């Protein structure tokens, strides 16, 4: 477990390496970025380097060998128990952090999905951040910065993790043995998340995406019954709805590329349908559709009503 494994997060890694090298490691960090962009991998690499003492994590000493399985006695992981991280979990963590390290030069904890701390747990954690025990290292991870109490945020050094470029994701999938066409498709649909791309992997389904494109072409304000039926179907599961919007965005980007004279489309297996859609609409209309889809996706991310959001979206996509 070392910083060399971190993909596409050079700025954050450089900050942490410099802190280790100069002995100015903060007592608490807040890593913010989308799911699957490398936050937890970076947190584990930071702990490994701090425990190992060589500034990078040698990968061979007893401490480093325990890190990939997260079995090091001085590393403590906290995550949601059900819907939230609860105060008893934070109290257990506090009791661990005040103890002397077993093997490492310090204690360390990683709190995943820190935006799901319930109010009591967040306030309890705040006391630990205000008066950190010894030289304990505390790392909070979140994909929703707005869910972190401002008082907690202000006591941590914030590091932002950007979305990964499609090329980096595609290259990593290829390295892991994913077929080239599937790797390209997954990288396009992943939204900058390697974790999401790995979930997609080989699951890219030509028939499903083709049906999605055909349904888009048949949306009509003159016959709104199928439109509302489609909205009801999509809104049944928020996560599935977001994934469908991502796929639709990828398809429409290819349509725009064809309309602009480009040939390097991602959904090459659907080229005839893409060309048909490109001939049915204008470049400006395709761009407007993508903008509407992105607005709906952001609304779903803010916990907007899925059915209402998708009703409005599909009416805007219809002609």
Task: Itemize the secondary structure elements and their pairings.
Elements: H1 10-22, E1 28-32, H2 39-52, H3 62-66, E2 75-78, H4 87-97, E3 108-111, H5 119-130, E4 137-142, H6 150-153, E5 157-160, H7 166-175, H8 180-189, H9 194-200, H10 206-218, H11 224-234, H12 238-259, H13 271-280, H14 283-301, H15 306-317
Parallel strand pairs: 1-4, 1-5, 2-3, 3-4
Helix pairs in contact: 1-2, 4-5, 7-8, 8-9, 10-13, 11-15, 12-13, 12-14, 14-15
Helical stretch tally: 15
Cα end-to-end separation: 53 Å
Structural class: alpha/beta
List segments where confidence is low: pLDDT < 50 over at least 5 consecutive residues: none
The strand order across the widest sheet is 2-3-4-1-5
Share in helix: 40-55%
Beta-strand content: 5-15%
From the coordinates shown, what is the CATH architecture of the largest domain? 3-Layer(aba) Sandwich
Shape: elongated
**What is the CATH class designation of the largest domain?**
Alpha Beta
Provide the domain count: 3
Largest sheet descriptor = 5 strands, parallel
CATH homologous superfamily annotation of the largest domain? P-loop containing nucleotide triphosphate hydrolases
- Give me the CATH fold name of the largest domain: Rossmann fold
Over the alpha carbons, how many angstroms does the gyration radius reach? Answer: 23 Å
Oligomer: single chain
Rounded mean pLDDT is 88
Give the SSE order as H and E letters.
HEHHEHEHEHEHHHHHHHHH
Secondary structure: number of strands: 5
